[in-house]
Amino acid sequence: MSHRSSEQTIALFDKYVVPNYRRYPVCLVKGEGSYVWNAEGKRYLDFFPGWGCNMLGYTPQKVIKAIQEQAAKLIHVPNTWYTEPQGEFAEALCTRSFGKAFFCNSGAEANEGAIKLARLHTPAGKYKIITFLDGFHGRTFGAVTATAQPKYHDGIGPMLPGFLYSPRNDLQAVRDLIDDETAAIMIEPVQGEGGVNIPAPGFLQGLRKLCDEFGLLLIFDEVQTCTGRTGNWFAYQTFGVQPDIITMAKGIASGVACGAIICKDEVAPSLRPGMHASTFGGNPIAMAAGLATIETIEEEQLIPHSRKMSERFRQHFEKLKAELPLIRELRICNMMLGLELAIPATPAVAKCMERGLLINATHDTVVRLLPALNITPAQVDEGCDILATVLREMANG
Ligand SMILES: *Cc1c(COP(=O)(O)O)cnc(C)c1O
């Protein structure tokens, strides 16, 4: 099905591709729903499709058709013109949330824009942004400085001035960091890369109160939690806290590169002409894919479906946790699932892969799953059985 073996493709990479990623020695060639195949025809069930970008699995038909039709009409138009897809996708996102949208191409780029917007919108002299330990906001300089994990700063300093880091779930610690120069608080409502960390009850509400008290903007980085992932269109709805700005990317266009900022109407004009832009941002292909993603989630009622699938995962994992003390904690927020292990989680990835299941390990000891919203009950059962076999094997050394 592919004209090169995995080995031949890997040889090309060794010769021509910068070696900045640790890659699995597998070349993937095609997918269907939550399944994906390698160049040798081996099939994998994917509990982590596209690193959370493939919200509808590998081959969402309506999205494929929208991309094909749009590509045949207009591939790219710069933002000096109006295009229908950008207006329609903005409407689709904002009528399910609030305010106005700005489009870009990635999560890091959305966060860069939000940082600039926060500094532009608040009075002169306010520039500091408070972020949180174990957070992750991307790899560009603003976003990686906002990422309070020393391992991401190692060797690339000096970092951008004006970022302060607070422990999670500690409102007094946040209050102690606020001064006359503070512009915003920026947080992932559920930390993804940091290990699927769900906020303590009342913490996000407390941040909202602090922002109101001190005149700060509250920014939610919803790059991983957007468009259905947490059981509502956005995680701020799941937790019942209204931010001023949200950033998103990953799943919003089913795996086509796309990022966005949504901000309150009164904040939007601060991103004034000439101050911020993105050449590919809002391009017709990404917009058409995004709109088809929202329509598919709605028409196929995938948010209610995903809640049922989340419950099914929970039942499997609670049974397994009762059996295996190796599983320390379950952290489940709909289609964001974390299993905190008592031992490093990385070996589970290779062991599951051998058995045809793709998962992720993060923050040393956490098995992380970001399944597609349209995963089927049979696929949940199939993958959970494999994961159970692997974790039992690891528990027995
Ligand atoms: C993945 C991620 C980012 C970075 O997104 P890129 O598209 O890789 O730039 C930022 N924030 C969060 C919460 C993420 O999960």
Can you characterise this structure?
This protein folds into two domains: 6-59 and 303-395, Aspartate Aminotransferase, domain 1; 74-299, 3-Layer(aba) Sandwich (Aspartate Aminotransferase, domain 2), CATH 3.40.640. The chain has helices at 6-16, 61-73, 84-94, 107-121, 141-146, 171-177, 203-214, 235-239, 284-299, 302-323, 346-354, 377-395; strands spanning 28-32, 35-38, 43-46, 100-104, 128-132, 163-166, 182-187, 217-221, 245-248, 259-263, 327-333, 336-341, 357-358, 360-362, 366-369. Helix content is 37%, strand content 17%. It is α/β, with parallel strands linked by helices. α2 (61-73) runs antiparallel to α9 (284-299) and α3 (84-94) packs across α9 (284-299). The longest helix has 22 residues, at 302-323. The relative contact order is 0.16. It is globular. It has a seven-stranded mixed sheet with strand order 4-10-9-8-7-5-6, with helices on both faces. The protein has a four-stranded mixed sheet with strand order 1-2-3-13. Strands 11-12-15-14 form a four-stranded antiparallel sheet, covered by helices on one side. It has twelve helices and 15 strands. β7 (182-187), α7 (203-214) and β8 form a beta-alpha-beta unit. The structure holds pyridoxal-5'-phosphate. Pyridoxal-5'-phosphate binds at residues 106-108, 111, 136-138, 188, 192-193, 221, 223-224, 249-250.
